[in-house]
Amino acid sequence: MIRTYLIPLLAIAGVIFAIVTVIQGAKPPVAQPPLIEPPRAPFEAFVAGSGLVEASTENIAVASAVPGKIMSVLVKVGQTVKKGDELFRVDDRDLVAQLAVRKAQVRIAEEQLSRLAAGTRPEQIPPAQARLAEADALLADAKDQLAMWSQVQDPRAVSEQETRRRRFNVTSAEARAAQSRADLALLDAGTWKPDLDIAATQVDAARSEVAQIETEIERRIARAPVDGMILKLNARPGEYAPAGDSAQPLVLMGDVSTLHVRVDIDENEAWRVEKGRDAACFVRGNKNIKANLTFVSFEPYVVPKRSLTGESTERVDTRVLQVIYAFNPKEMKVFVGQQVDVYIESNPIAQSLNQSLQPSATTTP
What we know:
Elements: H1 2-26, E1 46-55, E2 60-62, E3 68-73, E4 80-81, E5 86-90, H2 93-118, H3 125-150, H4 160-189, H5 193-219, E6 221-223, E7 228-233, E8 240-241, E9 251-254, E10 259-266, E11 279-283, E12 286-304, E13 319-327, E14 339-345, H6 348-357
Antiparallel strand pairs: 1-10, 1-14, 2-9, 3-5, 3-8, 4-7, 5-6, 7-9, 10-13, 11-12, 11-14, 12-13
Helix pairs in contact: 2-5, 3-4
């Protein structure tokens, strides 16, 4: 009984279910409305592009001039700074110690220069005069002794050796008197100018060494290059700061009083973008938040596309022309680094020419 009726009925039911399933699957799916309605271009003819918000000074990655351990960080994210303000400081204790030594050497060199510039001390003159008087007296005594020996007529009373010794004594006394006279003249003349020049040069050299150390200390202080806001901070006390560029900048800052939008225009449509044309940008996710843009400049070098929108149809091997526009941040609440949709007004004639150049969908390749 079961085999006679139940199995054929189950087979018929399965066939009917399969037919219904195929019919239901063959129906085209009903298009669902988008969760977020995309913005509409405010121009009749336009060029669309993806824009990236950045500071008007561009986003400046502040790095350390020399590697070292970060001793202190003096700013916070979102803080407004002025040009020249300290951002962070790298360890400079060894240089501070060297600076103290160099400053002491400057003081020594300056004291030496002052001593030479002051000339001869008055207290040095009387002793020199006394030594000259003593030398003159010894010379006079030696001459008297020689004259007395020379007046003896009997050669047997005076030996030739003693006479020569008296002559040598006179010569020695004359030399000592001449040296004493020269020493006194040197004291009277004061400091020699070349000695002053050498001492002044030594002072300049010592001061230059101090300036060099101060410059090295200054290089260990990262300062704000422009007026702006701290956008991102990756510097923390105790961490090691590498010198030069890095994947994560220690401090990212820029001037946000006026914001810029860097728009990527596909190279195939770059010829349609004209200088000075009106443009508008929309925040992604809300078409009602928009701002009018003011043309700033072209980046004349076409570069490979880097800013990706996430669309599945987006080509990553495209080269783009980058156009810079500006807007007042009070018109549109956005953050630096945020992507926006940009529409740039183009010439209607160029628009129609571009459409005419597009291949027809029915054209056989």
